[in-house]
Design brief:
Strand content: under 5%
Oligomer: single chain
Helix content: 55-70%
Order of helices and strands: HHH
Shape: elongated
Radius of gyration: 21 Å
Number of strands: 0
């Protein structure tokens, strides 16, 4: 999908240098993928303490069950 964005060239220079990216597309794609991963991880972290865990559940027995 073609997209036109007005972005700070100084940010691209830094991103390309730090990340070793050859193109702006590589830098933007990496940034978007990283943003998505971190956002999804944060949603999981936010669930800590909100989900009741069955202490008697034996995941090893379930894993070996065929």
């Amino acid at each position: 999908m073609a997209t036109n964005l007005a972005l700070d060239d100084n940010l691209f220079v830094k991103a390309k240098k730090i990340g070793g990216f050859k193109t702006k597309k590589e830098a933007v794609t990496f940034a978007l993928v990283d943003f998505i991963k971190k956002t999804q991880q944060q949603k999981i972290v936010n669930l800590f303490g909100k989900i009741n865990i069955d202490q008697s559940y034996n995941y090893k027995a379930y894993r070996n069950k065929k």
